[in-house]
From TrEMBL:
Keywords assigned: Oxidoreductase
Gene3D superfamilies named among the record's database cross-references: NAD(P)-binding Rossmann-like Domain, UDP-galactose 4-epimerase, domain 1
Species of origin: Amycolatopsis heterodermiae
Every NAD(P)-binding domain range: 6-181
Pfam families per the UniProt record, alphabetical: NAD_binding_10
Classification via CDD domains: TMR_SDR_a
Protein name: SDR family oxidoreductase
Length: 282
């Protein structure tokens, strides 16, 4: 049995879909089973699993040979939630724990890195055979940026001309499916990002091409970038995280030449033009 946590999230649903195409032994572990009716209709077992209620995790992992721990999106609580999952997986005798970490988790200065680095250590210390999927940025992270560019003809950032190795969420989900259904991945750490990194000016050109209208990128200072986010109504902590992401791009922390993502999925990662076209349509 393969258990996927966070299965009603954007990434989780894609992973479950991919697994069901290969095996019927799939369990969707979710906080609210009522939101997983569509997964049940496609053949997945639905199990309640709330990171904040460790008592739900034992039943969720019963009979599991493999577990995909999709990282929590709750800042400040993430590490404790992950620890509960790791302990439950250990108690259930899970034979392979796959974790969605962040690109270069052990060296990056990204705001999300400490929790991921600590979770990786928790998993190592638990003694469960593991695979770390260190995911880079999803192109879907820029959905609102694309919509702003379509509405105004431009978008701002503070990454300069540095390059970003983003890829669609579906590519990362496909990699997770490959690891969960394949052999030889235990003990491996994969650095996952798109094959061809791009800068924001190239991203603007891709939006323009897909939309058939001019779009430009305006590079601003980090301080000004933060001001723009706050003026747009974003909470200051969110503004800080987004500005830090552009710092990470400037410092080369969100691109890699590992080729791990295309190797796992057995094809080149989705081209930028195709990824952006999908965002423009949405």
């Amino acid at each position: 049995m393969i258990v996927v946590t966070g299965a009603t999230g954007h990434l989780g649903r894609l992973v479950v879909d991919g697994l069901l195409a290969r095996t019927s032994q799939v369990a969707a572990a979710v906080r609210d089973p009522r939101r997983a009716d569509d997964l049940a209709a496609r053949g997945a077992q639905v199990r309640e699993a709330d990171y904040d209620r460790p008592e739900t995790l034992a039943a969720a992992f019963a009979g599991a040979e493999k577990v995909l721990l999709i990282s929590s999106s709750t800042p400040g609580q993430r590490l404790a939630q992950h620890e509960a999952v790791v302990k439950a997986a250990q108690a259930a005798g899970v034979r392979h724990l796959v974790y969605t970490s962040v690109l270069a988790a052990d060296t990056t200065k990204l705001f999300v890195a400490p929790d991921h680095k600590a979770t990786e250590q928790l998993i190592r210390d638990a003694g469960i055979p593991f695979t770390f999927l260190r995911n880079g940025w999803y192109t879907e992270n820029y959905g609102q940026t694309v919509q702003q560019a379509l509405a105004t003809g431009s978008f701002a950032g503070s990454a300069g001309d540095a390059r970003l190795g983003a890829a669609p969420r579906a590519d990362f989900a496909e990699a997770a499916v490959a690891v969960l259904t394949g052999d030889g991945h235990a003990g491996k750490t994969y650095e996952l990002a798109g094959d061809t990194a791009f800068n924001y000016a190239e991203f603007a050109s891709a939006i323009a091409e897909a939309a058939g209208k001019p779009v430009t990128y305006q590079d601003v200072s980090p301080a000004r970038h933060r001001e723009l986010f706050v003026a747009a109504g974003l909470p200051e902590p969110v503004a800080d995280m987004l500005v830090d992401a552009d710092r990470g791009i400037r410092d080369g922390e969100l691109a890699t030449t590992s080729g791990d993502l295309s190797t796992l999925i057995g094809r080149p990662t989705t081209p930028l033009a195709d990824a952006v076209a999908a965002l423009v349509k949405n």
